[in-house]
Amino acid sequence: MDLEFLHKLIIPAQTKIAMLIMDGLGGLPQEPGGKTELETANAPNLDALAAQSALGLTIPVGPGITPGSGPGHLAIFGYDPIEYAIGRGALEALGVEFELGPEDVAARGNFCSLDVDGLITDRRAGRIPTEVGEALVQRLRTIHIEDVEFFIEPVKEHRFAFIMRGPGLGDALTETDPLKTGVPAQPVYALNPDSERAACMVNTFIEQANSLLADQQPANGVLLRGFARLPKLPTYPYLFGLRAAAIAVNGMYRGVARLLGMEVLEVGGKSIPDEFACLENHWQDYDFFYLHVKQTDTAGEKGDFSGKVQVIEEVDGLLPRLLRLQPDVVIVSGDHSSPAALKAHSWHPVPTLLYSRFVRADGIGEFGERACARGSLGVLPAKDIIPIALANAGRITKYGA
Amino acid sequence: MDLEFLHKLIIPAQTKIAMLIMDGLGGLPQEPGGKTELETANAPNLDALAAQSALGLTIPVGPGITPGSGPGHLAIFGYDPIEYAIGRGALEALGVEFELGPEDVAARGNFCSLDVDGLITDRRAGRIPTEVGEALVQRLRTIHIEDVEFFIEPVKEHRFAFIMRGPGLGDALTETDPLKTGVPAQPVYALNPDSERAACMVNTFIEQANSLLADQQPANGVLLRGFARLPKLPTYPYLFGLRAAAIAVNGMYRGVARLLGMEVLEVGGKSIPDEFACLENHWQDYDFFYLHVKQTDTAGEKGDFSGKVQVIEEVDGLLPRLLRLQPDVVIVSGDHSSPAALKAHSWHPVPTLLYSRFVRADGIGEFGERACARGSLGVLPAKDIIPIALANAGRITKYGA
Prior knowledge:
The structure is a homodimer. By secondary structure, the first copy, chain A, is α/β, with parallel strands linked by helices. Chain A has two domains: 3-85 and 234-392, Alkaline Phosphatase, subunit A (3-Layer(aba) Sandwich), CATH 3.40.720; 91-228, Alpha-Beta Plaits (2-Layer Sandwich). The first copy, chain A, is built from 14 helices and 13 strands. Chain A has helices at residues 3-8, 37-40, 44-51, 69-76, 88-95, 130-140, 196-212, 236-240, 251-259, 272-281, 295-302, 305-323, 369-373, 385-392, and strands spanning 17-22, 54-59, 105-114, 120-122, 149-156, 159-165, 221-228, 244-247, 263-264, 288-293, 329-333, 350-356, 378-381. In chain A, the strands form two sheets. An eight-stranded mixed β-sheet of chain A has the order 9-8-10-1-11-12-2-13, sandwiched between helices. In chain A, strands 3, 4, 5, 6 and 7 form a five-stranded antiparallel β-sheet that branches. In chain A, α5 (88-95) crosses α9 (251-259). Chain A is globular, with a radius of gyration of 23 Å. Chain A binds chain B through residues 1, 5-6, 9, 52, 358, 360-363, 374-380, 384-392, 396-401, and chain B through 28-29, 32-33, 36, 57, 61-71, 81-82, 85-86, 88, 91-92, 108, 226, 341-342, 345-349, 369-370, 373-374, 378-379.
């Protein structure tokens, strides 16, 4: 079922949908036969909501596929993450909330260390402090070539976002980063004729950048990879007729939400209660709310099982604030799994709960991986959750007579 | 898996498949935590059959999509209802069992009320009695334009089916019905060059129709919408090698079955027992039987929870008559859900049971929405049921060596 098919069936309604995403929610037991992070958490509010909900396990990208944050989020937002891929460079620019134009070509940049022969000795320039990286970025910002503008945005440590704006720039480009040391950086090649000018501009930029950095140690060179334009993504207001708001602290999630036409709200702090306060303050103004909790993923990636349990318990304690707003539809899920046992994102399906007055509730009074495996949503693509939510919100009309 | 792939694996067998469809079978509880219509029904025969069957929940069109009767039926018959859409006009003509030719263009017609300035005052002409509509249809049947024939078939009250037959008629046409009052009917426009002659014919027809009706009150005008030819659908005998029979009382279901190459049997009455008698009388003559029970949907759409329960109980009481015929495969399902709580078709998955000697029975001795959610068929597209039934009937050979 493609998005344009769904779009044609959308009708207006006075209903509100709240989507609570705990990043990397899905987990694994610490030992065989044990409980996952979510199953371990003492979460009476989530359990009570589960009893009135339909449960299932969502697959963000495909069976066995571990999603990055970009594809994981596109999927929970209803987009096929294989069809609508966001290139690495574009994602990096979104992450620093750079307002990418439709023709801009972005890349992920690294400061690196080069020896006297120009061979790479450290691809990350010894992970220079963020302040050092920021100062070096200032130097790169002095570069202008012909009618092309370059925007360089610091990210963290040795990383920066690189954006190129000008006429006739394609994004079918090879990478300069050889992904190993002891060899020189590669020149960029165009992979189609439309990208030849862009290749030439990038190579000239790198030449000038390396000369501007020549007196620096250890960050005396740059590497660029993941050249990409923004994909053309139909937006929430267009596709679903939703005034959508995003509540997230981290840049990348804010950037992806903005790309989909969501209003990205200012959160008055970085804590989870700050995000719930933001939700309350804007409840009247939108039809759809995406609230993103990053801390579950952070704990999972650190291998901090009990830390992840604590974050889930904190969210559980805040859930009544969301429910008091009386949303018509509530989704609680994750963008992927990040089991503490693996210290990384993983391919495991994601526990998902969908509540509305019109849902056929499973009566399973527990929100956990194995509880969700018994739910009536079954094991389903994550992108199917949004259409089901829209149906429960009275926002899809009948197909055919 | 497309139908041509399946077709190539079909082998003959001396087996019989019975598909019992309770229209709008899926339901919802009347109050949170309660039972659905099907769960409420005292249905010992269905429960006993469920114990020997594989259970599941079927999705007719896609997640969150509420199917009309046309798409819902195409899906349970094994066709992707998005790929094989039946236009509204063609469905209306099928509904009155008009034998649509492959090039005929059909539309849904309404008698309407026009004021002296030609503005619509009532799109349904006060829902004139069916007999009045039938008399007015006679007037329209006098119209002939050039080499084009017009067939007008009364449906009910102010509604009629409009069919146009002649050379060079396309169906890419806009609608005349503006879907509101206080404005004139729209002229028809062709949406491609192949449909220009058809647009001209329709506009001339409407002019002549309105002048023939000028002295009538309140039905002094006509509106036409949903122009469509029949889709090209591969038939049951071709696709599956099945001699298929349809047992249904209502025109639309009979029409769709005929379109798929099923033999539409004459039922000696309008009751459900009459339909089971018809099944018994023709048991020797066909390989596949579709038996359609409309009353579940009618009760659901009325919001009559207990009425729907009663219909299910009536069907349950008749089920032994079907089972005594010893079908090799039995499917019990619906074409969509129609919960009494919503008084309408809905998007909820449909409880489905598949029995055969070779099925891997779930041993769940209950036929209901939540029982089916635990079944081994899982949550699956409705169109996947027919291939599973054919396999259980020994009618699909191995794929590959």
